[in-house]
Amino acid sequence: MSESNSAERSDGTDGQVSGATVVAQALKTQNVEYMFGIVGIPVTEIAVAAQQLGIRYVGMRNEQAACYAASAVGYLTGRPGVCLVVSGPGLVHALGGMANANMNCWPLIVIGGSSERSQETMGAFQEFPQVEACRLYSKFSARPSSIEAIPTVIEKAVRSSIYGRPGACYVDIPADFVNLQVNVNSVKYTECCMPPPVSMAETSAVYKAASVLRNAKQPLLIIGKGAAYAHAEEGIRKLVERCQLPFLPTPMGKGVIPDNHPNCVAAARSRALQFADVIVLFGARLNWILHFGLPPRYQPDVKFIQVDICAEELGNNVRPAVTLLGDINAVTKQLLEQFDKTPWQYPLESKWWKTLREKMKSNEAASKELASQKSLPMNYYTVFYHVQEQLPKDCIVVSEGANTMDIGRTVLQNYLPRHRLDAGTFGTMGVGLGFAIAAALVAKDRNPGQRVICVEGDSAFGFSGMEVETICRYNLPIVLLVVNNNGIYQGFDTATWKDILKFGDATAVAPPMCLLPNSHYEQVITAFGGKGYFVQTPKELQESLRQSLADTTKPSLINIMIEPQAMRKAQVNVVAKQKAEMHLYSHPPKYLPNRTPCNSESFFEAISEFGTFICLFNEYLLRNVLGMLCQVLRIAW
Ligand SMILES: Cc1ncc(C[n+]2csc(CCOP(=O)(O)OP(=O)(O)O)c2C)c(N)n1
Ligand SMILES: [Mg+2]
């Protein structure tokens, strides 16, 4: 591997350079642009050295959020961001971010300070087996053997994070390296690693895939975030339009082709999955988000064509009809070549298209009906329809929560690739503010004027809420929306909350999903100089959104009060209903009073990946709470 001497580049005085500067210079040589973290012993000097070399340093309020932010930079730019953490607890906090990045297949570098090597096993300050701890959460985890070895290890970490399936990598820097000086000429900086090599699928497999697709009666393309990461938007759009195929984005695949494209069948998601006979997966895994590719959510004989960068992914949970191993962008072009040679178009007047269109129409009508409800407090749909009306087309949407994220995803449109970040494959709450911070930094540098809209459930917001201070400190172009239903999935209004408390201490009687009703989250941002709004009506929501988007001088937070018992819309879904009934009646909740099965359709409906679970949960919640209240009332009687 070629190396370049650093003599002119390092800032060593008297021909000496510190370990901290070597770390920073090695990262700079690998084109790392952003570093997030929290300083302390022994990494403060690394952050300072990084800043001196032109790496942007963002001080966060918790390493978890810092790690989420660094990983989002990796997804958005294709170059890993760095998360810098102190030893022991700092590193442990970052593990959540590493796990999340690895699950999402996003590149990330974590640099952890660690206790001095001479004190190892002695109970040193914040001593922890960091390299071992990171192995489970990363693709590569190592400690350089000397200061001179730091550049090679950092190059390997950066390369590993972006080659093959992207992921998290860890580099451990012992405290005694940080301030130790070595001769500047003894450190060689490994050149910036090359961009990942582009691999293509076997020609025979491409040919077979095209043939399977041509013979499909009810085809469907599924576009995952792997396609977004691979910048495959142009090719996939051409394929969709040339062959007139229906497509479905996964949550973060949204925007690879705009959501308002006529071939997008997101509004008929369950129907499309359940009856497709050939499904092409572009960078989308058959995990829980896609119901494992298995019946009853799919036809038992559905033919999957899997396009993925990772060989180990091919064949997970199903036996695919065709596997196309390679870079998604390159493989899409290979497929397009087949349809260039022998053009083919799926008939737009087919029964399949008709079914999908009808289903989309009825689902959209049901959402619109809910959105138009005038009752107060507002429901989710009313809120999101008003947000959608004012959402800038090029904004980045960050979202987390359960109902907030799931319903929001169906209403809030994405028109551009890599413009949606959410709880992702790991379903992690707490990612929102870190992601928004990363997206806003990248936006500020590359698309000045672009806004980040961060749509948070009230519970989700709480996980990393103190990052509002970070947002204000760096004056980032973020509008935070907290969709406040006083709880996790659902909550109670103030009067009910007070009634519950009459029966005992909150730890004994408050349902576990409750949060304090009527919380004024907007005051969190005003504490730091941002603009806060407390809204209860559509008019207040519209006005606060208008003002927040018009004000480019400071970030804002809109706390939107909604009906605490608001739910997703009802839909007839026999599968979910059966599953829910089977589960509930074989696992009766503890407080369940004897009663006949509830036949309300609404509890058993599911339209997206959280659907079945949420339905079960709503039913569970209702039964528990009602049952518990009955019990409590009986006792009080
Ligand atoms: C790190 C983590 N902890 C806990 C959970 C479990 N969980 C799933 S969604 C959720 C919060 C949902 O409430 P909220 O954000 O208020 O959204 P809502 O459904 O009320 O709109 C929680 C705690 C999780 N997914 N991740
Ligand atoms: Mg909530």
Automatic annotation (TrEMBL):
Keywords: Fatty acid metabolism, Lipid metabolism, Lyase, Magnesium, Metal-binding, Peroxisome, Phosphoprotein, Thiamine pyrophosphate
Ranges for domain Thiamine pyrophosphate enzyme N-terminal TPP-binding: 18-131
Biological process annotations from GO: fatty acid alpha-oxidation; phytanic acid metabolic process; protein targeting to peroxisome
Recorded coiled-coil stretches: none
UniProt GO MF annotations: 2-hydroxyacyl-CoA lyase activity; ATP binding; identical protein binding; magnesium ion binding; thiamine pyrophosphate binding
Cell compartments where the protein resides: Peroxisome
Cofactor(s) the protein requires to work: Mg(2+); thiamine diphosphate
Domain Thiamine pyrophosphate enzyme TPP-binding: 404-560
Ranges for domain Thiamine pyrophosphate enzyme central: 208-335
EC number assigned by the record: 4.1.2.63
Gene Ontology cellular-component annotations: nucleoplasm; peroxisome
Primary location class: other
InterPro entries on file: DHS-like_NAD/FAD-binding_dom (IPR029035), HACL1-like (IPR045025), THDP-binding (IPR029061), Thiamin_PyroP_enz_cen_dom (IPR012000), Thiamin_PyroP_enz_TPP-bd_dom (IPR012001), TPP_enzyme_TPP-bd (IPR011766)
Record's catalysed reaction(s): a 2-hydroxy-3-methyl fatty acyl-CoA = a 2-methyl-branched fatty aldehyde + formyl-CoA; an (R)-2-hydroxy-long-chain-fatty acyl-CoA = a long-chain fatty aldehyde + formyl-CoA; 2-hydroxy-3-methylhexadecanoyl-CoA = 2-methylpentadecanal + formyl-CoA; 2-hydroxyphytanoyl-CoA = 2,6,10,14-tetramethylpentadecanal + formyl-CoA
Pathway note: Lipid metabolism; fatty acid metabolism
Subunit annotation: Homotetramer.
Family, per entry: Belongs to the TPP enzyme family.
UniProt name for this protein: 2-hydroxyacyl-CoA lyase 1
Organism: Rhinolophus ferrumequinum
Phylogenetic placement of the source organism: Eukaryota, Metazoa, Chordata, Craniata, Vertebrata
Gene (name only): HACL1
